Fold:
Amino acid sequence: MNKTPNNRAWFLVLPVFILVAFSAIIPIMTVVNYSVQDIFDQNTAYFVGAEWYREMLRSPRLLDSLIRQFGFSFSILAIEVPLGIAIALMMPSKGRMAAVWLIIVAIPLLIPWNVVGTIWQVFSREDIGLFGWAVNAAGIEYNYASSPLAAWFTVVLMDVWHWTSLIALLCYSGLRAIPEAFYQAARIDRASSWAVFRHIQLPRLKSVLVIGVLLRFMDSFMIYTEPFVLTGGGPGNSTTFLSQELTKMAVGQFDLGPAAAFSLIYYLIVLLVCYVFFTAISQLDKVK
Structure:
């Protein structure tokens, strides 16, 4: 017996659509509108079509900050993912110490972004900061305020300290979901620790690692507060990423048209790279 669908159920979804419209669709359409206009003031704007997009795609500022952004994102992923897996493997699975470890590992995630930048700004100073003093005492010249290499290293280290915990906690949850029967079979076969990790643990971590990599890539690609507080984007432009260039353009120079085009290109790059990441990992899973 066929029953007529109850379309009234769509009214339950209506609040979600309204929320998404106000929080995402309407702002994006406003940015799209700005990106095709030359705006002088609130009441004066001229339609320029795709001019700002062409200008931004040829802009050295966009290209340089994009290269720095990719370098930063891939650097922190190359460090945080293996380090997070290693921390998760070392964490105890049962008992009171498991709870203690979970609390300790989660502490960096509870600290606000601007506070993280302030902590590392003080911690890395060569005169009063413990880290800066220790590095200089070891005979290595270190001053993140004057050396681009030191500034880059400090920003990467700060992000690793702040966000490795996310990968570790995701991997820890994935490890706890592995049935004990797998480990029992490995002990019967006298499998080594490396064999257990390679053939049991790592394959079971694939789903959480996909989530972790995508989250960390998107977040690192939008990083703003921490390097802004720590280095202000300097010295020079060595730690000026896409979000900071966008802020300078939109707020500092009030170039709303170019800034809108810049932000949409920025948004599409994030979507494209995340799609490539997800597709590559999915295809790899099908091959295996």
